[in-house]
Design brief:
Layout lengths: L2 H15 L2 H13 L8 H16 L4 H7 L2 H7 L2
Helix pairs in contact: 1-2, 1-5, 2-3
């Protein structure tokens, strides 16, 4: 299992234990925590804006996870 797949699985487990929205909130928090890291700031800010828009339109966890580039999920996997 790749680190990206591990990250997806962690968020699905959060959704199973709590609510899907809790997992989405964790994703947004995780991505915001990448500020100041080796990630391109403009790309990161664009991704944050996209995810906030997905939340506004009540997109599913699965949809949001598919929109996050593998390179980001690899950095986020713990």
């Amino acid at each position: 299992m790749t680190r990206s797949q591990q990250y997806d699985q962690q968020k699905h487990e959060t959704a199973d234990r709590y609510r899907e929205m809790d997992a989405v909130d964790e994703i947004l928090h995780d991505i915001k925590n990448l500020r100041g890291s080796s990630v391109d700031e403009e790309t990161l800010e664009d991704l944050i804006e996209q995810i906030e828009e997905y939340v506004h339109y009540d997109e599913s966890l699965e949809y949001i996870l598919r929109q996050i580039p593998v390179s980001f999920k690899t950095l986020l996997a713990k």
